[in-house]
Design brief:
single chain, iron, Adenine DNA glycosylase, mainly alpha, about 300 residues, purine-specific mismatch base pair DNA N-glycosylase activity, Endonuclease III, domain 1, binds iron/sulfur cluster, two-stranded antiparallel ribbon, 15 helices, 4 iron, 4 sulfur cluster binding
């Protein structure tokens, strides 16, 4: 897209104004810390599912200092069923750095943000754009799919972002900072709710009349470079989740006895490996005799 082509930007900005989901961390209602928390929670979980967790989390720990002072057990419990619970511990590590070394304020620059525990390129860019209004491309799976389809007429096949995809994101970004934020949000939102991976809702799409992918007949629609996500049933993720769920349901500080752990899953070898990996990840403490508990501290 060259700079003279304002059509996509105007259409998507207008669509964003009228169709953006009213998520509680949007429209300037959240602090930069709150935006960071929303981005970490949304990384592998749909935003709609994140909302109640984010609200409860921010009510309890409204800033980095509050989260830094929380116990790990409380943090893991509050993460609930968001999945990939190591994210919770990384978020707390991040809070401890922000509270302990940075006076409670998130850095306002890319290098400072990516230096924080658990903050990668995507999260740093999202915080810069959405919390601080900085002109920077925010490149997630949804944005890549939308840009690739509507501007190039090609399917984005997942995996790591290619150089071409990053260049496209940079090239298409409006020069004006405010407009760049809207562009990032609108393309991401379009990918989440309209231009979805397998079944894009082109009849509801504001750019359908000029979409290159639609015009080309949807070549390779839904094709992925990566393998489809592993089914959940029977996986280590499921077993780890069962152990953590059992611990979360106990009173604070209580221990889950070995016999109760063993009753959670039939395959003893898989169960023991999962308990060991949870211990290694710092998500539980494995005690002598095989009892487990959520970590102190
Ligand atoms: S017209 Fe269809 S394929 Fe093109 S951007 Fe819109 S939803 Fe996606």
């Amino acid at each position: 897209m060259d700079d003279s082509d304002e059509w996509f930007r105007t259409r998507l900005a207008a669509w964003w104004q009228t169709h953006a989901r009213d998520l509680p961390w949007r429209f300037g209602r959240a602090t930069p810390w709150g935006v960071l928390v929303s981005e970490v929670m949304s990384q592998q979980t749909q935003m709609g599912r994140v909302v109640p967790y984010w609200q409860a989390w921010m009510a309890r720990w409204p800033d980095a200092a509050a989260l830094a002072a929380a116990s790990k057990a409380d943090v893991i419990t509050a993460w609930g069923r968001l999945g990939y619970p190591r994210r919770a511990l990384r978020l707390q590590e991040c809070a401890r750095v922000v509270a302990g070394e940075l006076g409670g304020e998130l850095p306002r620059d890319y290098d400072g943000l990516v230096a924080l525990p658990g903050v990668g390129d995507y999260t740093a860019s999202a915080v810069l754009s959405f919390a601080y209004g900085v002109r920077v491309p925010v490149v997630d799976t949804n944005v890549r799919r939308v840009l690739s389809r509507m501007l190039l007429g090609e399917e984005s096949r997942g995996g790591a972002a290619s150089r071409a995809e990053r260049e496209l994101a940079e090239r298409s970004l409006p020069a004006d900072a405010d407009r760049s934020v809207t562009w990032n949000q609108a393309t991401m939102e379009l990918g989440a709710v309209v231009c979805t991976a397998k079944a894009p809702l082109c009849d509801a799409c504001p750019v359908a009349s000029r979409c290159a992918f639609r015009r080309a007949g949807y070549p390779g629609l839904g094709e992925r470079r990566t393998r489809p996500r592993q089914r959940f049933q029977g996986t280590d993720r499921q077993v780890r989740g069962l152990v953590l769920d059992a611990l979360r349901s106990l009173p604070a500080g209580a221990t889950l006895e070995r016999a109760t752990v063993l009753a959670l899953w039939q395959d003893r070898a898989q169960l023991d490996a999962c308990v060991a990996s949870l211990d290694e990840d710092g998500l539980i403490e494995l005690l002598d005799g095989g009892d487990v508990r959520l970590p102190a501290g």
